[in-house]
Amino acid sequence: MTGMEQVLTIVCKLNPTAEQVVKLDRTLQRFAEACNYINSTVNPKVMNKHRLQAETYKAVRAQFGLTANLTVRACARVAANRKVGKPVKFFQPTSADYDARLFDYREKEQCVSLSTLDARERIPLTLGDYQMSKLQGKKPTSATLCRRRDRTFHLHIPVKEEVPDPKPGKDVIGVDLGRRDIAVTSTGESWEGKPLSQARDKFARVRASLQRKGTKGAKRLLKRLSGREKRYQQWVNHNISKSIIAQAKATGCSLAVEDLTSIRERTNQKPRSKTERRRSNSWAAFYQLRQFLAYKGLRAGVEVISVSPRYPSQICAGCLHIGSRNHKHFKCNNPQCAKYNQLVDTDLNGAMMIRLVGGADCKPACDAQLAVLFSTRQNNRLGQKPAFLRRR
To answer: 21, 230, 344, 354: which has the fewest Cβ within 10 Å?
Structure first.
């Protein structure tokens, strides 16, 4: 039985000589200049790469000295950039796209052959066990040459690999996402968000202080600190997602995760201080965590279910009655519930409710039926779960 295909981007460090560094720099510079020329010359409404190529191909080759395939890749990059929501206005000389005619990965020699403005260069690679295992036996047909701020060169190589089809688990683990606790599972595991919030506040204070100074030394330090917060957040999300997926795989369960799409836009509509607005804008990190759960779940064969975040935090997971939520504490208002007037953890109760909704038989109808449930402020009789909450 064949599984699904997943595309992974393998980042490989290049070890060019001093002469090769100069050639790679020139290639990136000319590639960026060609992209800027194409972008400024052709009508911005033109988004088809073939039309861009037809209008600028000869001029780009004559003016910038790019090879035929690099010229084609420059046109394709401008076309792809114009199709995104906020296209860039100016291309920086930090990356260039390569296809099968421009680069060749040689597994035995652990090197790549790259086309430059002058000639084709054979450049050795520094690969770890992970990169070698993913590239073993592969013949990649595309790559992106990148130059980082520390002047090192890396090659981003997309590789396809087969992954098992995700199968519905025998049970569901609910995952509640938040700022006070980054993630809480219905099994009781939690990851506190206080260290991450403190790190973000510290980075914000340092950036503000250096920006006020405005000296050359402050600007150099800002450049050195750039991206550190992002990398720290990425490291945290990788660890959390790895642990959650490992637990789901070990127990044979599916995952139900809140869909926090557009949460930033909704929270920014409310009046709040500058500090609170900055903190609320960090909700984008939860999208990254959800993406990590999705692709790691695909590799592990774990089904990941998306659940609406609008109602689970307002209802008792034990009796399905609306309760009172006060920051970290949730209290059920149903006198017949075993948790009546007891303070329970809000995030844990939310995760358990997400587990119930994620395991429902009628997933498309969940939101509508939950809306009816809460708009009437009445629940089913005690002990009778609504149809959309019945277990598989």
So the answer is: 230
Residue 260, number of CB atoms within 10 A of its CB? 19
The per-residue pLDDT for 32 is 96
3-state secondary structure the chain: CCCEEEEEEEEEEECCCHHHHHHHHHHHHHHHHHHHHHHHHCCCCCCCHHHHHHHHHHHHHHHHCCCHHHHHHHHHHHHHHHCCCCCCCCCCCCEEEEECCCEEEECCCCEEEEECCCCEEEEEEECCHHHHHHHCCCCCCEEEEEECCCCCEEEEEEEEEEECCCECCCEEEEEEECCCEEEEECCCCEEECHHHHHHHHHHHHHHHHHHHHCCHHHHHHHHHHCCHHHHHHHHHHHHHHHHHHHHHHHHCEEEEEECCCCHHHHHHCCCCCHHHHHHHHHHHHHHHHHHHHHHHHHHHCECEEEECCCCHHHECCCCCCEEEEECCEEEECCCCCCCECCEEEHHHHHHHHHHHHHCCCCHHHHHHHHHHHHHCCCCCCCCCCCHHHCCC
Note the pTM of the prediction, 2 decimals: 0.71
CA dist 269 → 56, 58, 97, 178, 386 (Å): 44, 50, 40, 18, 33
Q: Which range has the top average pLDDT, 95-104, 260-269, 332-341?
A: 95-104
- Residue 374, Cα to own-chain centre: how many angstroms? 33
pLDDT of residue 13: 95
Q: Is 270 exposed, middle or buried (0-12, 13-18, 19+ CB in 10 A)?
A: exposed
Given this model, what pLDDT does residue 385 score?
Answer: 39
Alpha carbon distance 262, 9 (integer Å):
27
Which pLDDT belongs to residue 387? Answer: 41
Per-residue pLDDT, 371? 47
Q: For residue range 52-87, what is the model confidence (pLDDT) as tens digits?
A: 999 999 999 999 999 999 999 999 999 999 998 788
What is the pLDDT, as a whole number, of residue 376?
Answer: 37
